[in-house]
Amino acid sequence: MRKIIWTQEAESDYSANIDYLLKEWTISEAEEFINKAEELLHHLKSGKIKYKASKFEGIRECVVCKQITLFYRLNENNNIELLKFWNNHQDNKRLNL
Q1: Tens of pLDDT along 69-84?
Q2: Pseudo-torsion of CA 95, 89, 36, 3, nearest 10°?
Q3: CATH number for the domain including 65?
Q4: What is the pLDDT at residue 74?
Q5: Is the pTM of this model over 0.90?
Q6: Per the domain annotation, does 94 fall within a domain?
Q7: How many domains does the chain have?
Q8: Phi, psi angles (nearest 5°) of residue 47
């Protein structure tokens, strides 16, 4: 199994999304986001699923839920480095990886 490596930015994005859901929505929506993210991370660790390439070289993307896309890459040890949980409602011109 591959190892998951969280960047500071990915950790911050992930926490901010959960905080937003708890503030503006319900615990149920926050739990649903967490469960979807954990399921996705499990698939990435297993190496059985390879998500689509993004417009950024060497970086892949996968949809966690319709509002959030995860950007990641494989590092030199073939481990997964989580880069960003991106809110799809933001201006894509601001997405810098």
Answers
A1: 999 999 989 899 999 9
A2: 0
A3: 3.30.2310.20
A4: 93
A5: yes
A6: no
A7: 1
A8: 80, 5
- Using pLDDT thresholds of 50, 70 and 90, give the confidence band for residue 91: confident
Helix axes 8-24, 27-46, angle to 10 degrees: 150
Which residues have a Cβ under 8 Å from the Cβ of 97 and sit 6 or more positions away?
54, 56, 59, 71, 83, 84
Tens of pLDDT, residues 16-36: 999 999 999 999 999 999 999
Tokens of 42: 């499990």
Inside any domain, residue 14: yes
**In the 8-state DSSP scheme, what is residue 75?**
-
Tell me which residue range forms the domain holding 55.
Answer: 4-88
